[in-house]
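Database export, one record per block. Field names are fixed; values are copied verbatim from the stored entry.
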Amino acid sequence: MQDAIPDGYLPDEHEPDLFHALPELHYPEDLNAACEMVDRHVEAGRGDEPAIVFGDSEARRDSDDPSGGRERGPGEAMTSETRTESEANRERSDPRGPRTITYEQLRRRVDRAANALLALGVEPGDRVFVRFPNRPEYVVCCLATQKIGAITVPSMKLLRADEIAYVVDDAAASVAIVYDDLLEEFEIARDEHGLETLEEVVVVDRDDRSGDAAVEHRSYDDLVEAASPDAIAPETCRDDLAMIAYTSGTTGEPKGTVHTHRQLLAICDGYARYCLDPGPADVFASNAPIAFTFGYGFEVAFPLRFGATTVLMEDPTPKKLLEAVETHDVSILASVPTAYNQLFAEHEDLLADADVSSLRRAVSAGEPLPPKTFEQIREYLGVDASDGIGSTEMLHIFISHRYHDEMDPTATGVPVPGYEAKVIDPDTGEELPRGEPGLLLVRGPTGVTYWNRPEKQREAIFDGWSAPGDVYVHREDGRFEYVSRWDDLIVTGGHNVAGPEVEDVLLEREEVYQAAVVGSPDEQRGQLVKAFVVLEEGHDGTADLTERLQAHVKDRIAPFKYPREIEYVDDLPTTETGKIQRATLREREREGGDAASA
């Protein structure tokens, strides 16, 4: 089916053992994720229901807005099914996008975009590089690519030219679809690196700019308008590739990870179904980039799988996320600890008056959820937060609490239904006794499968089990407790110190806003425990404060874990997904560089 995939790009050995323990995961051989997420709802008579809400929270009046500017509730159907093609074109050219897109409208858009890709010569197995902020076109292009059996390659919007070139070349993408505001770095990548596999570049040029690089490329609007409106009849199988997602590069060069149509549905019918209990009345919102698999799940796959509504924001700051909860009655909110902390630190005044009564689920992932942040989510948002550990390699969350269980902020949770997990000694491969830290192994309906990286593939698989690269403790109560990333263990004077444990203790202090703890080279101890600290406003990084912070750590955990050095910085390096780049800090320490600008 996917003959366009070059030989050797997929592993022929050291593959993960995938198993499908849940009856919901027993899909038919012929399967297409896009059809399951869109067409199925239309065929069930729910075409008038809202699929996507897009735009800021201020009501507006447009000539082609049939609601007359009145904000439409998530459960209220769009009344414009007889809208003319010219009106649909005006929707496509509206730089702020339509207020609501129903499932029927989404199906039509996906089919038109799919036919446009076919007209460009895209074939099953071809890779389509997609570069957008969180906009409806992103969803449409991903689903259209998957519907015709091609493979979506989502791109983070903050990638620079060298990073773009690496992803395009590594995936051997033949087509790129780029939003005009993100075209500049793409053009630099093409000028400097060639991007020789690309045959077509399509630009969503909403500003109708003239005289710039965009006019040299295909126009998305023109291609879609000229495309056949006929429905696409997919010919994909459940194990055909649907997506290549690239890791965020926190531990080195980004790696492509491959995912099938079956797996895109399995994360919905496993994690989402059992840990979120979603339904058509739910409204999802997140500030994670759609290109991040965490964001793809919460902003595309989960809401569309269950006929719910997704709220998309082009610039989803923590403040706008809060406004979206109020305006659109968001019921399921997903973010990273950094964004939750920013919301609580910078917008306490707004939180005091915010109506967040619609919320019934709050999810945190991407980084371990500090107990302090868990308590703040409970206080300000009125719900207990569900922590979760997932990875780009595993596609989504595989360990989490379920909401009918008692939440324990000191642990990540238990394996998501359909998954198994254990903790091993990586040197012997033997499972460790409860309570001992070791390498986490997981198996289930998804697994670590790298694109064109046989060496990394060999390192990631242990007798069919996948190793996402985390150190965990399997506790006596059955819960799995996070220790650190495998790369984040600090060996100092013969002791193992987990940086995140020290960070959590530092964050208990009112003076500390953010903290990152890494190992710094030391001739005597091998490594020193060093903390990079961002202070709350009104506090200064004095020698006296350093002593107080060090004493606090010594009082709370084993004294050998305290940070012998503390460097105060204005901010910490993070990925686009909000993860602290500890690898960057470690590298600067090895090179003896200045991290104050981090």
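Remark 1: Residues 26 and 437 are 34 Å apart (CA to CA).
Remark 2: The radius of gyration is 24 Å.
End of record.
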